[in-house]
Amino acid sequence: MAFVTANWNPLGEAFYRKIELYEMGWNLKDGLRECLVAAAPYGGPIALLKGHNRRSPSARPQLEIYSSSGVPLASFTWKSGVVKQLGWTVSDDLLCVQEDGTVLVYDLFGGFKRHFSMGNEVSQSQVLETKIFHSPYGTGVAIFTGALRFTLATNIDDIKLRRLPEVPGLQGAPTCWAVLTQDRQSKVLVANGSHLFVLDNTACTHVTPPGLSPQATSIVHMCVSFSYKYLALLTDSGHVWMGTSNLKEKLSEVDTKIKSSPKQMAWCRRPKSQQPSAVVMWDGLLVVVGECNETIQYHLDDDSILVPELDGVRIISGTHHELLQEVPGACEEIFKIASMAPGALLLEAHKEYEKESQKADEYLREIKEQSLLSEAVRQCVEAAGHEYEPETQKTLLRAASFGKCFLSNFPPEQFVIMCRDLRVLNAVRDFTVGIPLTHTQFKQMTVQVLIDRLVYRKLYPLAIEICRYLKTPEYQGVSRVLKHWACYKVQQKEESDEIIAKTVSVKLADAAGISYSEIATKAYESGRTELAIKLLEFEPRSGEQVPLLLKMKKSPLALSKAIESGDTDLVYTVVMYLKNELNRGDFFMMLRNQPVALSLYKQFCKHQEQDTLKDLFNQDDDHEELGNFYVKSSYKEQRLEARIALLQSAVDEYYKAKNEFSAKTTEDEMRLLRFQRKLEEEKGETLVGFSLHETMTTLLSVGLHKHAEQLYKDFRVPDKRFWWLKLKALAVKEDWEELEKFAKSKKSPIGYLPFVEVCIKHHNKPEAKKYVSKVTPEQKVKAHLAVGDMEGAAEAAIERRNESEISTVLSRCSTTTDQLLMERLNRAKATVAKK
């Protein structure tokens, strides 16, 4: 604690500090000399291409990937083309841009993922310079070609190449250039001598930085801030101009007094800082410039590179990894010499308390008198987050906890969250993990992204512990990590399928929301089909199992699983897939072994593929269904001969099936069709296709009674049915004379009440009265009432001595005209009731 400010250097009103993050674990004989280096932001991995200028097949470059602490992650000999630039994507994939414009993508462990080209023009004119940048759309690549043109791709996952306009007066490579992202659009800022140009999709615009030193004749270097909001320009006169990236506002200009061209320059402004600052690196020298004319100078022992970060700059050399940043406000308030800030007083109070000194009370009183104890606790908590050393963090948090004891209403969330965050940060900063995140970067990155980074590095145990510690919802935390672990595990070739399947199932047994089908897919893609099948057994959702089984050509198993699910849509999906994949014979054979699938396919064929249905019945010797098929098909035929031929086929199939009823019925249909055709030809009436009922009705209605009676006899139509048909047909035709003859022809099997009702229905009461006398005694009352004969109805009801019928007649009587009749009926009703 006594040396917290030992590495602080003042610059204007702010202080800057250089913190050692790691003593590098790699063993580089020549340091970073003659290496192409790229380090990912947010404490990401480092890629080195050693000997990148070698062109001899016998001495190829070596590509090595390390963690930020120098722990090796991958190493392999580079056998592709000449690499012009290395860079990292937002998801920690390594991009290698070659001289011919081809970009190769590798994962963190050197596994090749894919490649893409920056276009034919770039390939033909070669890459001179390239920059890899991060935009709102993802990771982008900007290239300056031998044709002196810029080509831009703002998102490598959705390649859309843009060829930017020409730069006026450009004869060779520009003195410097950078990519800007403004208003969700990526632009290129180019310096050609003393002239600055902004290139966008459509135009090349000349711009002038406001207040640039007149001594400058050329802009030799430039850098853009991490957020793309600010810009720093270095001129040949040694001046560093800092302002907004839209070049509308100047923030400061400082003379470094060094006129040679630097190796690298990076923006070094902390979020919410009031002072702009940039870091310029020459051979052996690092200079920090801000608002004032003074600078901070650090001497470098080895070749180094600068890695811009959200809240500072990381400096990586062959032996050390350091972080240069403006001292955060809370830390400055507490640790600045002679500071009287509330946080500083609270820290002193806690120190005195631990010494059991009464001065602790004096410091506390001073803070409480100013009502600043809450602010003091907040400062200590915030400062703890910005400190890198765990001991300093603990001291500050103990002081904050001490101060909280004297506050009754201080919300504990800030303190608790900071403790959790620092425990996570200290775990990932460990040398073996090598992710040196600051608290500011951690909050910007979010826990989910950090978990993704750990998973990507295969640090599964640590990722799971962090998820459990932070109580992350299982589907976002532990389950997600375990799924990634399982996907990695199934790709390992050392262990047998049984052991891996068992290990995965045991590990994932209590995890919620994990899809085994995704893990099985990974196993299949790794060439382990049997393992994939074993893993699918643990998948509870058939809808997830079946697609992968089909992909693996395990059709019988896929069909069985679909049937077990009870989901007919899923069964249909598999059946249709098999239909397209297998030849007809194998397809039918497979369906025959699965009755449920066969039944569903038949249902489908009934509506969609009639011919296939016939083939299925033939193959199964299902004569009954074949007969039904021929009958249904016959109704679709327009020509009578074809229809009869199909019906004859149906008859043959029914006899083979020993279904005599269906065979006889179909033969009757054929006889009826022939009879209908004959009558059509003789009488000109349209009859073909009518049912027997419709045919007789039509014949009776047109007066062809003999032909109707012939059908009645030939097809053994029941007497009652024929009498009803003829009765209705004659009534509709109003052929009352023929109706009377028909009634007298023989005793009616349906009685004579229907004759009365039909006549009344057709408004012929006189004709109806003719049949009343023939009606049976049980129906007399109903018949008399139908023709409106109240006297007759009353006589019949009284004669039958039926109380119900008497009541029915009474209900139909009128109190004004049928008074005497009602009295008579009432007397009869009373007599019946007594008995």
From TrEMBL:
Keywords: Endosome, Lysosome, Membrane, Protein transport, Transport. GO terms for biological process: endosomal transport; intracellular protein transport; vacuole fusion, non-autophagic. Residues 5-416 form the Vps16 N-terminal domain. It is found in: Late endosome membrane; Lysosome membrane. GO terms for molecular function: actin binding. Its main location: membrane. Residues 514-829 form the Vps16 C-terminal domain. The keyword Secreted does not apply. GO terms for cellular component: CORVET complex; HOPS complex; late endosome membrane; lysosomal membrane. SUPFAM superfamilies: WD40 repeat-like (SSF50978). InterPro entries: VPS16, Vps16_C, Vps16_C_sf, Vps16_N, WD40_repeat_dom_sf. It holds the Pfam family Vps16_N. It is a peripheral membrane protein. The keyword Ribonucleoprotein does not apply. Plays a role in vesicle-mediated protein trafficking to lysosomal compartments including the endocytic membrane transport and autophagic pathways. Believed to act as a core component of the putative HOPS and CORVET endosomal tethering complexes. PANTHER family: VACUOLAR PROTEIN SORTING VPS16, VACUOLAR PROTEIN SORTING-ASSOCIATED PROTEIN 16 HOMOLOG. Belongs to the VPS16 family. Core component of at least two putative endosomal tethering complexes, the homotypic fusion and vacuole protein sorting (HOPS) complex and the class C core vacuole/endosome tethering (CORVET) complex. Their common core is composed of the class C Vps proteins VPS11, VPS16, VPS18 and VPS33A, which in HOPS further associates with VPS39 and VPS41 and in CORVET with VPS8 and TGFBRAP1. Interacts with RAB5C. Interacts with STX17, MON1B. Associates with adapter protein complex 3 (AP-3) and clathrin:AP-3 complexes. This is Vacuolar protein sorting-associated protein 16 homolog. It comes from Cirrhinus molitorella (mud carp).
